[in-house]
Amino acid sequence: MDIFSVITLIGGLAFFLYGMHVMSSGLERMAGGKLEHALKRMTSNPLKSLALGAGITVAVQSSSAVTVMLVGLVNSGLMNIAQTPGVIMGSNIGTTLTAWLLSLVGLETDNVWLKLLKPENFSLILAMVGAVLIMMSKKPRRRDIGSILVGFAVLMYGMKFMSSAVSPLADMPEFASLLTAFRNPLLGVLVGALFTGIIQSSAASVGILQALALTGNISYGMAIPIIMGQNIGTCVTALISSIGVKRNAKKVAAIHVSFNLIGTVFFLALFYGLDALVHFSFTDMPIGAFEIAVVHSIFNVATTVLLLPFSKQLVRIANLVIRDKKGEEELPAKRLDERLLATPSVAVGESNAMTVDMMKTAHRTLLQALGLIEHYDEKTAEEILEEENRLDACEDELGTYLVRLASNKLSAEDSMLVSKMLHTIGDFERLGDHAVNLLCSVRELQEKKLSFSPAAQEDLALLSSALTEILALTAEAYEKNDAEIAARVEPLEQTIDRLVERIKDKHVARLQNGECTIQLGFILADLLNNFERISDHCSNIAVSVIEIKHNTFDTHQYLNRVKYGSREFTVQFEEYCEKYGLK
Length: 583
Prior knowledge:
Oligomer: single chain
Number of domains: 2
Largest sheet: none
Structural class: mainly alpha
């Protein structure tokens, strides 16, 4: 073995890690919002959490990424610590899929059909198909499939390079003598943990072990402790991600470490205890890549079966290791945790959930403000001011987070959703501002002990009814992402504009007849201007919902198209005009 073999080994590892990254990124983009939806359905049911953990790990091809995701979700308050043990156990099972795929490298057979399963015989074909999809297809989903195929091919050839690089070791007596040290199980566990911790990929460390196994010099007795140690080493990523987070999030990493440590100690003691009694005949036999995949899976499944009934006890261990300090309250959870950016589809889902909450807050605040016109209440007024401050903070946090999120590689669906949020969060914040403006106008009436004439009150009540309807339509359209409901907003917005103009004309007539004062006229003008601006923002939000279906955000083009030449718009506009007495 010379310097070129070392270079090949390092290059093979680089290919492996890069292929894993490309493949997992493509899988995640294809999964899109499904990952976030799955996490939303998370319950305290251990079996359900186990299945979801395994499924998500298969989707992103990284148990470390899933654990980091859990740290972020617990840190942001979206999950509680009791939900995480099952997910962590499931992720350990899900990550064994990679070892099974890599075991195909060592497949030896004369059967033509089985030979087709060898990576060197089909990976290049997959790479060609993937490259064609990436370069020729216009559909993002097909390009993602292409990325997955190319990533898989690169990963497999990385494994092949590592195998060919270490093959000369089979004939080196120095290597054989070095391996005798690994007959000490504790050293095997330590080496497996350290190496996996350094490269932060249990899949890669298992792959290297499988490559070494192809030399025929690795025995079952050497491999089993190393495999157990590799499961401990994969906790390093979670430990790093827990730096600087709240104590509950640190407990996720503690659960991950304790799960793997307890499993390793128990099964290591069980295996060598039984070996001392019955003397297993296979301990000194060479182990192959396939057998390593089997041992890897058996260990993770057996550890899960052993510890799943004790999920609550794992949480208690984490509580003992990471103690809550008496008399010290943790800072409020920051919902958009930066760690979620490592899994963009989940970050998009949580951003959307926060945007929907922002929309609901703006809707609720405006309804409270409209209610103050008829009946003023100081407590409600204070709530409006507090909610408006919340909307300001949400817009700042979401805007910054979404800009960072948009720089990631997203699926087409997630990319459009981010665009929609960036286009609408400003409107939601402005709706909160208009609620405060309405409050200020009503307060002025209260402080100056003024009141509108019965005719003006009747006009405002009708306009408030129309505004309540357009707010409800907008909120429903945005939350359901329903373009049909959104299409009803613009005709109603035009109706509200007509109502505002008619109320202004009637007010001028009352002024001329001496039935109203100029002072009341100023307050009425402020109210009407805010009503009109509120409906304008509703129109902007509805247009964003509609335009996302057409993969474009040209508001003026859409509005011109529906106002001039859309029969559906005309019919709905006439219906609203009749409903609100404009005919």
